[in-house]
Every structure is written in structure tokens, then in C-alpha cells.
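Dear colleague,

Thank you for sharing your sequence with our group. We've completed the structure prediction you requested, and as agreed, I am returning the results in plain text so they can be pasted directly into your records. Please verify that the sequence below matches your submission; if there's any discrepancy, let me know and we will rerun it promptly.
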Amino acid sequence: MPVERAEFGQRYTIAGLDMLCYSVDRTERIRPWGASAGAWFRRAGSRWNPFVPVVNVSDLERKAVNDRAARFLVESWPEEAKAVVRPLPPPHWEPLQLVNQCGRPASELLASHPVLGLMVAWRHSLAAHNLALAPPSAARELLSRRRREIAGEFGFPAAERTVRMLARLPLDQVNVEGLRRLRETFWPQPPLLLPPQRPPSPPRPRTRPFRPPPLQPVQGLVPILTAQDLKTEGSEMHHCAGDYVPDVLAARCYFYRVLWPERATLCIELRARRWRVHDLRGTCNAPVRKDTREFVDRWLAGQLPFTLG
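Please find the predicted C-alpha cells below.
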């Protein structure tokens, strides 16, 4: 099939159920609907990793007249799903996939209580620490619960007054960051910098150990001590951290698990004789919250300069 050019400047091909998009530094594969729907990307020489496309159904419907890539996506989604998702605040990929995976219960909750429906659709970001909520089976189980129980699962008080309060939120202002901030108003916050942990346990047998952590960890920030643990981190967080084992062994970078304020993965690298942030990502390479970045920056600022020899 010939390679075509999409409106947004990428080259793309459409093959069966998939659309492949090519840019300078990565390839994306998008399957918009069905039991195996999903979106993945990879860079040269790396494996496929999941990501969340930025999708606005109304914008794509307007572009579909002249843009074959947009038309492919729009025509892949059933009209019933588009009708439910169209009034919601974009991006629309996750609520579309919630309807795809869970059918009528998802459509009914998104239509009758959009904020709770979006919370279930955005569960990977709102409850990144709880990997048990990630699979579609967990979403179907959530949708079978009472509404106050759904709110409680995402850190809000499990009460009818919470359900009513969430229903009154202006829909055009609802987003993941806003819901996180609203949730934090119900509970006291822990201090930003926490006391140091006890020294980490020795690496498990039969795993290749890394050198000791170059910077002293604190509570909520755990060094990754072995090649197997780094691969496990990549698998649990759905990103490519496991591909960096050779770089850690060569002392070019080092990884930490971030457990607070949210679940994330931190990679630091040595530049100009100081350890600095190379990357800080949540599940599926999602950007982290501002308070998470501030937590890491304060931790780094409190470390002594690194000197060679």
C-alpha cells in the first residue's frame, strides 16, 4: 500500500485494522476499535510501547472530509460510541476505549454521570499506583459498582454527597490534573521531603547487580538495584526502561522507582559532574504531575555535587 501524507505532517499507511504513522524519530501503530484495539510506538531499534493518542472526535470528523487518516479513525468508531464521547472534554481516546472494552455499562455511565465515567476511563492516570485497576476486566468490575464506591476507588470519600458534588463540576473544566487537585482537598498531605530510608536490601540472587545508587534515596524514592528489577519496572510501568540495562551497567545513567506523590520512574544521568534528570515518566510514558517533579528536583538539589575520583 502506498505511503500517504496526513494533514498533521506525518507519513502514514493504512493496512487492515491498523494505521501506521511515521515521523522523524518514531513509528506509531494505531488500531482504533475491536478486541485488540490499542496504540503503540517505537523508536529505531527498540520494541513497541503503548501510548495514549491525543484524539478529539469532533475535530477528526471535520478533518475527515479531506484527510484520509482522520476518516479512517472516524469510520472505525461506531456511531453510538462517538455520540457518547463527543460531548466529553477531549482527549477522547480513553473514553472511546472504555466503551470499546465495556460496552453498554460504560456508555450509560459516561452519559448519565460523565465525571465518574471519565474517572474510570482515566484510571491509569488517576490511580497509577494501583496496577490492579489497569486491565479491562477491572474497568468492567468498577462499572458494576455503586457510584459512591467508584468515587471511593479513586481516593474520594465514598459517599452520595461526593457523587452529587462531582456531578456539578463544569464538564469543560474536568481533566486528570483537576481531579487530582480536587481529591487532595479531602485528605491531609504528607510532607514533601521525607526522612531517608534504611539502606536497601541486597539484590536478589541470580540477578545481575548494578553499582550502588549514586545518590542517597529518601522515602518514596527507591533505587533499582539489578538488571532484572529494571526490566520488571519497564514491564509494570509499560515503558522501555528495561532497554537501558547496558547504559546503567556502563554507569551512564541510573534508575529509581518513584512511589510518592505518584507512581513513576526516574532516570538520572551524569552531566557536567552532577547527576541530573534524564527522564521522569508515569505509566505508559505519561507526563508526571508538577508536585512529583518538584519532589524530585528538591531531592536532587539537596545532594552534594558529584566529583570523580
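Summary note from our side: DSSP finds 14 helices and ten strands in the chain.

Kind regards,
the structure core
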